[in-house]
């Protein structure tokens, strides 16, 4: 099995309304650290992203946070992990994408959705073949899947885009799926 060097985790800068989201973020941090992969994330110490990153770091995992300077006052940043400060949200997203060999998509808001549409669109266009798994905690991603299927039904997206979406409710199984789908490293 190929080894992933880095897993980009896209998720909320808030905890959300369900404790299951926070518990999943902890499990993700543990699983990524246990797999020996680097967790790449949005750099803040708040919300689900802060939980996942701080848990990975506490378990001895390698963590890279990428955050625009203007967000530090709002989201903070974790001590003891590598933090890269950039100028813009676009630069942050580009570096998150570039630094990741695979993507785990957790529940989140509009920022997470922007990242999702970017990596899914890039995959559809053949700009990357990195594995993507959605962590579908309590059915969070079901409305997204319905929307995506609607774009296929209405002729705006190819069926292949929906076929490549992988949903998994269990954090450890989601990480395992990413590890199984890892492209060979050269």
Describe this structure in words.
With 186 residues, the chain is α/β, with parallel strands linked by helices. The chain has a single domain (6-179), classed as Rossmann fold. Helix content is 46%, strand content 17%. The chain contains eight helices and seven strands; from the N terminus they run βαβαβαβαβαβααβα. It has helices at 19-35, 47-58, 72-75, 89-98, 110-124, 142-153, 159-163, 171-180, and strands spanning 6-10, 38-41, 63-68, 82-86, 102-105, 132-135, 166-168. Helix 1 runs parallel beside helix 2 (47-58) and helix 1 packs parallel to helix 8 (171-180). It is globular and about 45 Å long. The model has no long low-confidence stretch (mean pLDDT 93).
CATH architecture annotation? 3-Layer(aba) Sandwich
**What CATH first level would be assigned?**
Alpha Beta
Please name the CATH topology: Rossmann fold
Name the shape in a single word: globular
* Radius of gyration (Å): 15 Å
Alpha-carbon distance between the two ends = 13 Å
Oligomer: single chain
